[in-house]
Amino acid sequence: MYEAYADKLLNFTAQHATEIGQQWAKALQSSPRTRSYRKVREFKLVNEGELFFKNMKRLFFDQNLYDVVTAYFSKWAEDQYYENIPLDEAIYALIMLRRQMWLYAEFNVLFTTSLDQYQAADSINRTVLVTDYATLAIIKKYAELTKK
What we know:
By secondary structure, this protein is mainly alpha-helical. It has one domain: Globin-like, CATH 1.10.490.10. It has helices spanning 2-15, 17-30, 42-61, 65-82, 87-107, 114-147. The chain is globular, with a radius of gyration of 15 Å. The model has no long low-confidence stretch (mean pLDDT 88).
């Protein structure tokens, strides 16, 4: 049931990936919970956000969701680790990615009808699942890199 709305949300997100990535980068660099990101160049963060928002549809609908999300976010976690971003801040950055996607859609009144709102609520579970798998992948990658 979430597929129709998710298509609408994810297509919208991909179309506006740069703007959403810019908003994410600014929020990340100004949040007291993600201070380490202040030393990362804004254009790099915008590119990371843009890449995520453009790839979210592929991640969302892939039959091998766990494997695809794990591969994507293991690489992302490695990049964060080598930027000296603490694990808690990397996880919070992921939370902010998800939040920024929803905030941008809501701000642009993507949810106009009660059916849209129902479908939005229905698709939240899959979006949360994607980011739950991402969280696990990030934690595992940090643990692996810390042991080296």
